[in-house]
Amino acid sequence: MIKDLSPFYSKNARNLQSSVIRELLKLTRKPEIISFAGGLPAPETFPVEAIEQISCRILRERGRFALQYGPTEGEMPLREELAKWMALSKPGITPANILITSGSQQGLDIVAKVFIDPGDIVVMELPSYIGGIQAFSAYRAKMIGVSQDSHGMRMDLLEKTLARLAKRHKKPKFIYVVPDFQNPSGVTLTEARRRRLLELAYAYEVPIVEDSPYRDLRFRGVAQPPIYGLDTQDQVIVLGTFSKIFCPGLRLAWLMAPASWTDRMVVSKQSMDLASPTFNQMIAAEYMRQGLLRPQIEAIRKLYGKKRNIMLKALKEFMPKGVRWTKPEGGLFLWVKLPRTMNATTLFRSAVDENVAYVVGEAFYCNGKGQNTMRLNFSYPSEEQIVEGIRRLAAVIKKNM
Asked: CA 228, 230, 234, 240: dihedral to nearest 10 degrees?
């Protein structure tokens, strides 16, 4: 028996790192813990009865087709529905622009696999989505973070970053952004900055990857146009998902890009899973065809908006001075900043001892910073749990101040 397998691992495998979030969440499995840690949708929003009816009809009428392999790029009825959905923001989108993926994380992996060679540069927000950091890190990208404020990624800093790289004859493979209710910060990139982002991307000839899982979950304020809707030079790749607006268990998402790019991405996906589940795609397509998705989103918005307000009120009531937080207009998360002298990772075990959990902020920083930050989820816990959980968390922070 081989005792040490490490010499057999590829360089990419050696570079893989377990998610800090997943490892810490193992400590939160006790039923008495109130968790703000996961990015879980509220189970009460899942349309169980509608899915049951649609599933029975599909199995009864087209069961042999639904249970068979399907095309790698996805079932045409679902791609057609998604093309119509996306064309509301940019006319001219067709099924040729759509690739169905097994969750949005697979979309990130496909983008990384197609574009990144070891040492290639990816520019991203600081902080940024941990799933993106993991996907790009797996292909040994060099990630450069650009700080954001309450209006999203700062374009002045992005311009300086791109100019500095250009002087060194370095071109990023893409700029990765989560523009709407960003994970983890909850902030939204303004329209002016979206337009400036495109101007800089055009000037430096760099693609943009627009990760957009939360866009439809706005419950306050005015919607900003999607970046791809403003794009005039076919330079934006979009990642969308059903996990936050329908149900995550179907593991369905999509990738939208210029048709010449999706062809290469289809080939990349073939070596991953051949195709996403046919049955699940038929369920999602029929759900959209019946016009059920928009009312579903409205119900989710109403619930999450209420929970968000309850969390903000509890934070204001219980948190000590020196603690700050964002006030998202949509999505699932808000971002908490502790005094600079505090460390949220060190604090985590004390919080778990008091039966409350969160996600440590440093996991979202590609430069290893953010030790005094944390992400809180308000979509999954009940209203009562939100109030009690914030009370517990505030007590832990006060004690460790």
From this structure: 0
Q: How far apart are alpha carbons 295 and 350 in whole angstroms?
A: 41
Where among 291, 319, 337 does a domain terminate?
291
What is the per-residue pLDDT across 99-122, written as a single tens digit (0 to 9) for each?
999 999 999 999 999 999 999 999
DSSP notation for 160-189: HHHHHHHHTT---SEEEE--SS-TTT----
Cβ atoms 311, 386 nearer than 8 A: yes
Number of domains in the chain: 2
Contact between residue 253 and residue 102 where contact means Cβ atoms under 8 Å apart: yes
Which two three-digit tokens encode residue 166?
């250009």
> Alpha carbon of 318 to those of 37, 106, 208, 265, 321: distances in Å?
19, 39, 40, 48, 10
**Domain limits for position 17:** 6-46+295-400
CA distance 192 to 40: 31
Rounded alpha-carbon distances, angstroms, from residue 234 to 92, 93, 227, 307, 308: 12, 11, 11, 38, 36
Question: Over the stretch 173-211, which tens digit does the pLDDT of each residue have?
Answer: 999 999 999 999 999 999 999 999 999 999 999 999 999
**CA angle at 226 for the pair 224 and 228, rounded to the nearest 5°:** 155
